[in-house]
Design brief:
5-stranded mixed sheet, 51% helix
């Protein structure tokens, strides 16, 4: 049994490629992942940059990720890079579970495979995929989703590495997965957050009782 935690960095498809933009909005420019064993101990890392095929990397993406056109100029395109990742996780191994923070990464893989890797079975990958953000929120009883950095902050866990680099994001997401395996420690660590949200819900209910018209207006907005 293995557990793989993945994170992707992406770049928007250039507006000049109108037909492609009808099928996908972004392209993967970095894949980062960590593999954990059956005891949730990290045993391997995967990281690669991916050369986009439909436009240069935008300035805001460079600022966010540090990934430039020069950095990916000699890298592989999506199809060979992604298949290396698939081989690394063990595509034929049913005892591998893949986790990401939200389902946006799986959605991106599906859309990009439809354009660039049409013979890849994304359904088989999706069957082993877990939305860790949803599991985290459900465990805490949250009605709204927490961003990765806020979830780590709630754990009082210092972010390892640089945010918005795929491998660092995967490593830090893995830290949340590991904590969630110990229910008692998880509840003890997250108790201040649970209490905070409970107070917020109580406050919202009180405001709703006192000012129902205001609450209805907020729903409309």
């Amino acid at each position: 049994m293995y557990h793989v935690v993945i994170d992707l960095e992406m770049n928007p498809v250039s507006r000049e490629f109108r037909e492609i933009r009808r099928k996908m909005n972004d392209e993967i420019i970095e894949i980062g992942a960590v593999k954990l064993d059956e005891n949730f101990a990290q045993i391997s890392e995967f990281q690669c940059y991916v050369k986009p095929q439909y436009g240069s990397i935008r300035k805001n993406i460079v600022t966010l990720t540090g990934i430039t056109d020069e950095k990916v100029a000699d890298k592989e395109n999506f199809a060979p890079a992604f298949m290396k990742f698939v081989e690394w996780i063990g595509n034929n191994d049913e005892d591998v579970t893949v986790y990401s923070w939200s389902m946006s990464d799986l959605k991106q893989i599906k859309s990009e495979c439809r354009v660039k890797l049409t013979d890849f079975d994304t359904a088989a990958l999706a069957a082993r995929w877990v939305d860790l953000q949803k599991e985290f929120d459900d465990r805490l009883g949250l009605s709204s989703s927490l961003a990765l950095k806020h979830a780590l902050g709630a754990m009082d866990h210092r972010f390892e590495g640089k945010q918005h680099t795929a491998l660092a994001d995967a490593i830090n997401t893995g830290a949340i997965l590991i904590l969630m395996q110990d229910e008692e420690k998880f509840r003890r660590t997250m108790q201040p957050v649970i209490e905070l949200f409970q107070h917020q819900e109580e406050l919202s209910a009180s405001i709703g009782d006192l000012c129902p018209e205001l609450m209805e207006l907020q729903k409309e907005l």
